[in-house]
Write a structure and sequence with these properties.
about 130 residues, mainly alpha, 6 helices, about 60% helix
Length: about 130
């Protein structure tokens, strides 16, 4: 067995979320940002984004199965947008984003607000 085929059988961890159109630019940006910003901050942000994705999939999975014909797509939650506003506004923004979810979202919102504390905004290049 060659090395190439052996490595193909090994489980690999990738950080790719389900493909969203026009989403691949964020992977390129991360490389440049790592140099400029604290790696720990970026790791926290990445962990948070993965946690958000997992939570949203859980919140919406039953709804998607039940309403396969008229499925509401999973909402997008932009961490940068949330970091620009006050805690109260963050909460109401999240409630607005999740208002169509048929499952209770209060715990998710509370936990997300806790996790957002201490995260810093990444300045965007103009």
């Amino acid at each position: 067995m060659s090395m190439a085929s052996k490595s193909r059988d090994l489980p690999r961890v990738t950080f790719q979320a389900p493909e969203k159109p026009g989403d691949n630019s964020s992977h390129k940006k991360l490389g440049k940002l790592t140099v400029k910003y604290n790696r720990k901050d970026l790791q926290r942000r990445l962990d948070l984004e993965e946690w958000i994705d997992a939570q949203l999939q859980e919140l919406y999975q039953y709804q998607l199965q039940e309403e396969a014909e008229a499925a509401t797509p999973e909402p997008e939650i932009d961490i940068e947008d949330l970091l620009e506003v006050s805690n109260e506004e963050q909460k109401s923004k999240l409630q607005e984003i999740l208002h169509e979810c048929s499952r209770p979202t209060e715990d998710f919102i509370t936990e997300l607000l806790n996790r957002l504390q201490g995260l810093r905004k990444i300045p965007q290049k103009k």
